[in-house]
């Protein structure tokens, strides 16, 4: 059992999108707790998606310099690098659970990190993928 938790890019985006309302508040609270506990885990995919989405898709896009600083800050967290084995593992997860390849790669990274919790809005709340359970932090 791990006290660390994997965070999907949607949670990071909400935390930095000033137009995200209540979801922003919930995401900020979760990320602050993970920062304090030093227990957040990401992947290279999550960082890449986060950067693109806060710069281009957020209701209030984050300026370039601020986005770069945020990426640099989040790279302090444990970061799973998606290599060839990760891709092959994601293909197996995609087939077994019938989820998208990109979501499978997130699940694979969480499994690689050995975490029990994956915070995501994109996957089914309560679903277990091996030892990893998805928690949607916005369901309150």
Mean pLDDT: 95
- State the name of the first-level CATH class: Alpha Beta
Percent in strands? 5-15%
- Looking at CATH, the homologous superfamily is 5'-nuclease
SS elements, strand count: 6
Ranges where pLDDT stays below 50 over 5 or more residues in a row are none
Radius of gyration, in Å, reads: 14 Å
Please tell me the total number of domains: 1
Q: If strands are numbered along the chain, what order do they take across the biggest sheet?
A: 3-2-1-4-6-5
> Per CATH, what is the topology?
Rossmann fold
CATH architectural category: 3-Layer(aba) Sandwich
| Helical percentage | 40-55%
Global outline:
globular
Task: State the major sheet.
Answer: 6 strands, mixed
The total count of helices amounts to 6
Q: How far from one another are the termini?
A: 25 Å
Quick recap:
The protein has six helices and six strands, in the order βααβααβααβββ. With 140 residues, the chain is an alpha/beta fold. The protein has a single domain (5-118), classed as 5'-nuclease (Rossmann fold, 3-Layer(aba) Sandwich), CATH 3.40.50.1010.
